[in-house]
Amino acid sequence: MKNVHVLLPILFLFMGWVPVNAQYKQEEYQKHPLQKIFPEQQFDSVAAINALAQGDATVKGVAFTKPKNNLGFKAPLANRIFANHITVELFPYTPYFEEWYELKKKKENVKKNRIVYMDSIAYRYRLYCETNARGEFTFPKMKPGKYIIMGTLPWTSGGSYDQYSGSGYGSYGGRVDYYERQYYTVSHSDFLMRIIEVEPGKETIKVKLK
Length: 210
What we know:
Protein name: Carboxypeptidase regulatory-like domain-containing protein
CATH topology of one domain: Immunoglobulin-like
Order of helices and strands: HEHEEEHEHEEEEE
Largest sheet: 4 strands, mixed
Organism: Sinomicrobium oceani
């Protein structure tokens, strides 16, 4: 029998036998298949260009978030977590982006994999900047009008727990359980978005992106 096992690989080699992949591959199970939602109206590039024309105002802002409580809401008295070198994007509040914004607020559900997208061409018509370590950002030369600003803020939280590591007997013969302190971190990502308005005649507009 040992000789048969040795000869089989040799026979397959001379017969030209080569393992092949399956002809059909079953798709992975998804509890919530991806649903892509787009604005229905056509994007107007001329309106976007006019809305992003240069002006005399300066938008100064700070981007931050706060940790969530057990109910999933941001704790109002918690310390701010500032956006450390993230990209903040600014879009003109034209009808197309207005519809996108409303869909994002009302229709999107990340847990159910229902995501709102914008047209790839429309996405080009934006301004963007990078925050500093304190979450501060600036958009200079802005003209009066409404805009959408947004950014994604990654942050981490940590905690600890006692993990059972074994048991033994104490000085008086009783059973003693031993535990070791274990530490862990959890990664988070908060999507920040809001509408801002540059009013005519104002030189500086201060905003909070949270």
